[in-house]
Design goal:
By secondary structure, the chain is mainly α. It has one domain. The longest helix is centred in the first third of the chain and has 41 residues. The model has no long low-confidence stretch (mean pLDDT about 90).
Length: about 170
C-alpha cells in the first residue's frame, strides 16, 4: 500500500474522532437538562411523587442491568454475539440512572441547570433514586446468587445420583 492509502485512513480516523467529539459535546450540553425537565414534568413539584418515581426508577434500572450483566457473564455455551447483546441491553437499561448521575455529578452548565430544575420540580427524586438503586442492586445480586446456588446444588445432586446409581425418581 502506498502513502496515499495511509493518508486516507488517517483522514477518515480524524473525521470519525472529530464527529464523535462533536456528538459527545452536543449530548453533554443537552441530555442532563432534558432529563431533569422530563423528571420534573413527571414529578410536578411533589415531594411524595419525587420519592416514589426516584425509588422506582432507581430500583428497576439498577436491578435490570445487574441481572443482564450476570446473564452475560454466566459460564456456559452462550455465543459471543448473545453476550454482546446482553451487555448492550444492560447499558441501555442503565441509561436512566446514568442520566440522573450526569445531573447529580456533572459539572457542566447543563448539569447545573438540571440540578436547579430538579431542586424545584423534582424534590426528593435524587434521594429516592439513590435508595432505589441500592435496594435494586441488593435484590438483583441476591437473586443471581440464589439462582447460582440452586444451579450448583442441582449439578451436585446429579453428580451424586450418577455416582451412587440412584434414579432421580427414587429407589
Amino acid at each position: 500500500m502506498d502513502w496515499r492509502g495511509w493518508v486516507k485512513r488517517l483522514l477518515v480516523a480524524a473525521a470519525v474522532i472529530v464527529a464523535a467529539w462533536l456528538v459527545y459535546q452536543f449530548l453533554a450540553a443537552f441530555l442532563p437538562r432534558w432529563w431533569a425537565q422530563t423528571i420534573g414534568n413527571a414529578v410536578d413539584g411533589s415531594f411524595a411523587a419525587g420519592s416514589w418515581w426516584g425509588f422506582l426508577i432507581g430500583a428497576v434500572f439498577t436491578a435490570a442491568p445487574v441481572v443482564l450483566l450476570a446473564l452475560a457473564a454466566w459460564p456456559g455455551r452462550r455465543a459471543v454475539p448473545a453476550r454482546v447483546t446482553l451487555l448492550v441491553l444492560a447499558v441501555v437499561c442503565a441509561a436512566p440512572n446514568l442520566l440522573t448521575l450526569s445531573v447529580v455529578l456533572g459539572s457542566s452548565n447543563a448539569a447545573h441547570a438540571g440540578q436547579r430544575i430538579m431542586d424545584v420540580d423534582a424534590p426528593a427524586f435524587r434521594g429516592g433514586s439513590l435508595a432505589g438503586a441500592l435496594v435494586g442492586g441488593i435484590l438483583a445480586l441476591a437473586l443471581t446468587g440464589l439462582i447460582a446456588w440452586f444451579r450448583l446444588r442441582g449439578r451436585r445432586l446429579r453428580e451424586l445420583r450418577a455416582n451412587t446409581g440412584v434414579s432421580p425418581k427414587g429407589p
